[in-house]
Each structure stands twice: as structure tokens, then as C-alpha cells.
Design goal:
Elements: E1 11-17, H1 23-33, E2 41-47, H2 54-61, H3 64-67, E3 70-75, H4 79-88, E4 96-99, H5 111-117, H6 126-136, E5 143-149, H7 159-168, E6 169-177, E7 193-200, E8 207-212, E9 221-225, H8 250-253, H9 261-264, E10 267-270, E11 282-283, E12 290-294, E13 299-300, E14 303-304, E15 316-318, E16 327-329, E17 333-337, E18 350-353, E19 363-366, E20 370-374, H10 382-392, H11 395-404, H12 412-417, H13 423-436, H14 452-461, E21 463-464, E22 483-484
Helix pairs in contact: 4-6, 6-7, 10-13
């Protein structure tokens, strides 16, 4: 992290918020001691709320004033409160910040949310609050290097934070740890982490993206990307993408996947049945006046299995006047699990709801851990539901999704903002699969001559197996000989 800071001169005001025992500050000061960074003076402010760590923090720092023109202070108070006060009084003089901030959600009515709003910060987690405050504590040219979760890159709750970062700083470097289990194996990390370098008021140019599996950096890879591959022009949500290869993905190259769900006449919603709020209406097994209730566990290999007699989850929900508004008419739907397990092969896992599995049930309940594709709360044509599921289960879509989402959750907003093939292509893809009896997770066996639109889809969404010659790279339309659909 310390090596990401560019060369500097003059006076350095270093901020380490959430300093712990001083590991990050020490790394920065080591660069200064080795003359990789040269400053006429260094003033370090180390904030650490846990006073039990202050002795170790002081022990880490006390030897550096002998080597460097350094003075430091250790502050045990609340960083958020102190930072808000400094910003309100115009004390924005930190030139550098090196951060490993705490990760904890901030409730909407908490004291921290009220404090942050006083300086124009709206955010939902302590780690984004620390980064936002650090930015506002700097003059133009200030440099931040922070190791943080990647969850801020997408989703509606982090949109105000993304707006603030993109308004007040330039993103110069992002390093991605590709494994959620290896880089931070002692911390039970459930999402990918990144190291990011920001410049307060900097001019946005190309962004360096580096990747490694874990913190040994044994397989470090570095590429540079234009900023329009990081934040797509015209993206109102301003998702931050982290491409992991220099080439455009199959999804980006595809001229077929260019339609919104609005164009397709399709909606996607989070399953409305929140089980702990509706316990009085839930039934272990179907019975009188009940309709099926579907959880992620009811879906396997792209299809639905219901009921599950040995399931710990309910299989049914009472159909009453009170529950009617939470239910959907029985029909064909495409569903996507909202959560994937750690290191699962695919982040997006789509399945098809087949109404034949529920006999004459008039309605269906979808539990909150499912995303449901529907048409104005009605079912989809069977071919459309199957074609949509097959498209979502491609590795090309999964690779694209992982560029802006580093955690285990798949939000309805994420699915809503993606681009899709046309409704006609999806229907024909589903029809082709139906003729062969293929399930939603299989798409590689669709005949190459089945239909012109399906062939175009195949050509654009195929993934390279192996180049046949030194100059043969994916261009979105090579033959079936060289490419296969990976699911």
C-alpha cells in the first residue's frame, strides 16, 4: 500500500485513521526512511479508538523521529466526530492518508449518520465514512491509499458515496484480491477487498488495475484501462467496474446484449415474502388453503423441486386476504438467488419456475432471498423464461457481473441495470432449448444453425477455450470450432 503513493516533496501531513498498532504508518515511514519518499517534514496524526492498542502503536512509531523529520500524535477519540469538526472549521490540511478503516453498518438514525450529514456525507458503512471524511480533510492534490471492501462499487445504498468520490477525486489505481478466502483468511471475509489510490481534485485519466489471488502477490498482474471502462458513460448509478484483463469481455464486445429490461417489457423484483415477518402464515408442508412458498433451496440444476419434505424451511404459505398482495399468479418465472456461497463457481445462478410443479396452485410465494423476473407481477412466456435463465447462466454474464460486484449478494438493482439480448433472441434461445429438452444451466449444445438470431447470440457470448494460432483472439464472431459456451 505504501508503495502506491507517488513521489512527493515539501511538508507531509499524514493521516492514519483506525491506526491499530501502526502497521500502515510504519510502512509509509519506511519508504521515507529509504528515501523513496522525500519530505522536509512529516507530521503524523494516528487515530485509534481502542486505547488498549496505544502502547503498541507508540512502540511502532517512536523510533522513526531518530531517522526522519517526524513528529506524531496518537489520538484516542472518535475519528468521525473529530473529522467533522475539522471540516466545519476548514482544517483540511492532510496531504496523505493511509487507511484500513473499520467495517460496520451505520443505521439511518444513528448519531454517526447525523454527524456525517453535517458535512454532506451520506453513507451506510464506517469504511466509506472514513474514506469520505479523509477526502474532505485534504486540499487538492492530497493522496489516499486505502484497503477497503469492494461493496461500494455497486448497489443503490452506496450511490451517494460513489458520487462523492467521483466528484472530489480521481481514481488512479485499484488492486483487487481475487480470492475472498485467501487474502484475509483469518477474518472470515465474505467479499472481495481492494486497495485503491485516490487523488483529491485530481484530473481523471487512465486507471491502473492490478490483481492477485492473495496478499503474497505471487501472481501479480497489472493492466491500464481507460476510465470509460471503469465507470461506463451514461450509467446513472455510476457503478465502478474492475476489469481483470486488458481485453474487452465477451459481454462488452457483444452487439446483441444491448437492451434494458424496460425494452424487454420485463421487471425484476426481490421476493416479497420476508419469512420472519410472516411466521403466522407459514406452513411446513402444503395443506388446506395454502400455496407454494419458494426458497433458494427449492432450486437445483436450473429447475424447481417442490415440496422438500425434509427442509428446515417452510414449503407453503396460507392464501388469505392478508397474504394475497405478497403472492404471484402461478406461471413461468426466471429466478436468481440473491446470495452465493464463498468461492462459488458462478455469482449469478438462474433457474426456471415451472408451473406444472405445483399442480393447480393458483398463486406462488417467493421468499426474500430470491430475485424474480416477471411481467408486471405476472408470469413470463415459457420460452422467454428459459431463454433468460440460459443467458444469465453464461460465464460471459458472470464475468461481467464480477467486474462491479465483489460480494456474495446479487441485488435486483444490479440485474435491472444490466443489458440483455432482445426479447426475440431470448425467446428463440428458449425455444431452441425446449426443442432439445435442455435445462436452464445448459446452453452449449444449442445447434449452431438453429436460427440466425440464436447464432448471433452464440457468436457474441462465447468464451475462448484456446487460441488456435498466435494471432487468434476473441473478436465476438469466430467459428464454433474455436469457441464453446461455458456454463
Amino acid at each position: 500500500m505504501a508503495k502506491l503513493f507517488p513521489a512527493g516533496s515539501g511538508s507531509c501531513r499524514l493521516l492514519d485513521a483506525g491506526a491499530g498498532i501502526g502497521s500502515l504508518s510504519s510502512a509509509f515511514l519506511e519508504r521515507c526512511a529509504s528515501a523513496e519518499l522525500s519530505f522536509s517534514e512529516i507530521k503524523l496524526s494516528a487515530f485509534e479508538l481502542d486505547e488498549n492498542l496505544h502502547a503498541a502503536l507508540d512502540s511502532s512509531l517512536h523510533g522513526y523521529p531518530i531517522k526522519l523529520p517526524l513528529s506524531y500524535e496518537i489520538t484516542g477519540g472518535d475519528f468521525i466526530e473529530s473529522a467533522v469538526n475539522r471540516i466545519q472549521f476548514g482544517q483540511n490540511d492532510f496531504t496523505h492518508a493511509i487507511l484500513n478503516p473499520p467495517y460496520k453498518k451505520i443505521s439511518s438514525n444513528s448519531r454517526y449518520r447525523l454527524l456525517l450529514r453535517q458535512v454532506g456525507i451520506e453513507t451506510v458503512n464506517l469504511y466509506t465514512a472514513f474514506v469520505a471524511l479523509s477526502l474532505l480533510l485534504m486540499p487538492p492534490g492530497g493522496q489516499i491509499v486505502a484497503i477497503i471492501p469492494r461493496s461500494f462499487c455497486n448497489g443503490p445504498y452506496y450511490r451517494p458515496f460513489r458520487d462523492l468520490v467521483l466528484k472530489h477525486s480521481a481514481i488512479h489505481h485499484i488492486h483487487l484480491f481475487e480470492s475472498r478466502s485467501k487474502a484475509f483468511k483469518d477474518d472470515n471475509v465474505l467479499q472481495e477487498n481492494i486497495i485503491v489510490r485516490l487523488e483529491r481534485g485530481g484530473k481523471q485519466g487512465p486507471v491502473v488495475i492490478s490483481t492477485s489471488t492473495d496478499d503474497t502477490f505471487a501472481d501479480l498482474a497489472i493492466h491500464e484501462h481507460s476510465f470509460d471502462r471503469i465507470v461506463f458513460p451514461g450509467d446513472s448509478e455510476r457503478f465502478i467496474h474492475v476489469p481483470t484483463s486488458p481485453e474487452n469481455s465477451a459481454f462488452e464486445l457483444s452487439p446483441t446484449a444491448c437492451h434494458s429490461l424496460v425494452d424487454l417489457g420485463i421487471n425484476v423484483s426481490t421476493g416479497p415474502v420476508v419469512d420472519f415477518r410472516m411466521k403466522p402464515y407459514l406452513q411446513g408442508m402444503p395443506g388446506k388453503d395454502t400455496v407454494p412458498l419458494l426458497y433458494p433451496g427449492h432450486f437445483s440444476a436450473g429447475e424447481v423441486t417442490w415440496p422438500l419434505p425434509n427442509s428446515k424451511k417452510p414449503n407453503a404459505i396460507l392464501h388469505t386476504i392478508d397474504t394475497e398482495k405478497w403472492l404471484y399468479p402461478n406461471g413461468y418465472y426466471c429466478v436468481v438467488r440473491r446470495f452465493s456461497s464463498k468461492e462459488e463457481k458462478r455469482r449469478i445462478v438462474a433457474s426456471v419456475v415451472n408451473p406444472a410443479a405445483f399442480a393447480d396452485a393458483p398463486m406462488l410465494g417467493f421468499e426474500n432471498h430470491l430475485n424474480v423476473f416477471h411481467e408486471n407481477k405476472q408470469g413470463l412466456p415459457e420460452a422467454l423464461a428459459r431463454g433468460l435463465a440460459m443467458f444469465l447462466n453464461t460465464m460471459a454474464v458472470d464475468e461481467y457481473f464480477r467486474r462491479f460486484s465483489g460480494h456474495t449478494q446479487v441485488n435486483a438493482t444490479d440485474l435491472r441495470l444490466m443489458k440483455y439480448p432482445s426479447r426475440d433472441v431470448l425467446i428463440k434461445l428458449g425455444q431452441s432449448a425446449m426443442r432439445q429438452g435442455l435445462r436452464a444451466e445448459y446452453a452449449q449444445n444449442i445447434p449452431p444453425k438453429d436460427d440466425a438470431s440464436v447464432r448471433q447470440y452464440r457468436d457474441c457470448m462465447l468464451q475462448p477455450r484456446q487460441a488456435r494460432s498466435p494471432g487468434e483472439h476473441f473478436q465476438g464472431g469466430l467459428s464454433d470450432r474455436a469457441y464453446s459456451m461455458n456454463i
